[in-house]
Design goal:
The complex is a heterodimer of chains A (about 290) and B (about 160). Chain A has about 290 residues and is α+β, with helices and mostly antiparallel strands. Chain A has 7 helices and 14 strands. In chain A, helix 3 runs parallel beside helix 6. Chain B is α+β, with helices and mostly antiparallel strands and about 160 residues long. Chain B has 2 domains: about 55 residues; about 90 residues, Sufe protein. Chain: A. Chain B has a 3-stranded antiparallel β-sheet. The chains are: A alpha+beta (about 290), B alpha+beta (about 160). At the A-B interface, strand 8, strand 9, strand 10, strand 11 and strand 12 of A face strand 1, helix 1, helix 2, strand 2 and strand 3 of B.
Chain lengths: ~290, ~160
Amino acid sequence: MPKPGWDDFRFDGIGTPWEISTPRPLDASLRARLLAVVERYDGDWSRFRSHSTVSAMAREPGRYELPAEAAALGRLYRSLYEMTGGAMTPLIGGSLERLGYDAAYSLRPSGSALPAPRWDDVLTWDGHVLTTAVRLVLDIGAAGKGQLVDLLAAELQSCGVDSFVIDASGDLLHRGPDPVTVALEHPYDPARAIGTVQLAGGALCASASNRRAWGDGLHHVLDGTTGLPVSTAVATWTMAESTMVADALATALFFVPGAELERTLDFSWLTVFADGSAAFSAGFEGTLFT
Amino acid sequence: MRPSVRTSVFAGFAGLSLAGTVAGCAPSATPGTPAPAGAAADSSSPSGTSSSLASSGSVYRDGTYSADGTYRSPQGQETVGVQLTLASGTVIAVKITEHPSNPNTRKFQGEFSGGIAAQVVGRNIDELKVEKVAGSSLTSGGFNEAVEKIKAEAK
């Protein structure tokens, strides 16, 4: 529990453990409502559930209506698609069969991915209505967990709960008067942290490659072809008002420098590179250990 | 094993630093190593794997072994090369080689308000007063995979 005396409501949703901490225990009916939101979201968006809308899109092209949250999700994905030159896309590449949408509908992916189709060739995402020109696999994984955090927060607030921490396995949203202190997990060692940050009314999300390429005191990863230090991002953190935005931007930082992204989007960022160096925006000033 | 086309290597002294980190995770094998050893060994982190390797005594033949592991980063499938030097069942040197298929070139030129840290520093989470941890425990899949191959090869 993040605060002494707070109560934790734990459950599994969209394939990951969740923990909602509140000053007082949530009653049974509110817990049921929260679980219903999770179940509904998964039922619409999961590409691993054969009855989901997304799975239907993989079986045949057409016009699909999704819940209202689709509009914000589509706008966010579209702008990141453009800002990353198509690198960040909700469209999964590779043959559908390879992804498990075979005759037997095994849903077991195999083989490596092929390039994703171009958005404008196959998909019109207009508000909550998606029109597809071909069978396609939609994957909202880079922002979906964050959006579900926001939906659960809205549910809590509509029920009069104004102080809480939602922890979706490391993606966090805090609301209320007392900030929480959050450790930034070391990219290569979950037992260690590289800094701490005060989260006061907003979202903090993280993304990491699991490239085990440096340790403390390990300063120089040299590119054998150039002799220069490699500067590949290995871990990222973001803070934003919306968890959906923070979640998506944590991934976008692997493709576009934060300084570039922050020209368009209002958020704070921290990127740690393979050589152990880090760059960060003003919002992360003073959070790293020295 | 896939062919090793290595585009980057650690500088030698850097490799030794990492060797210290990995070998230091062996329970009681390196008494000089402070707290991180215990903390890391308790978790299911890669350190745990390394410690089982290092503490297995004469099970493994001395020598230098290489293997590649694969993992997924947000940029897609990546490969990491791991080279371990074993002596008396202990890892005495580690070299990691990256095969960055999508090098994300840094373009920071000091234009933004914020900063750059030359080197981030880790501290034990147990020793910090924090209420939550934000991270993405995608750690070490590729590294562990490579270490498992080496363990099999070194027997």
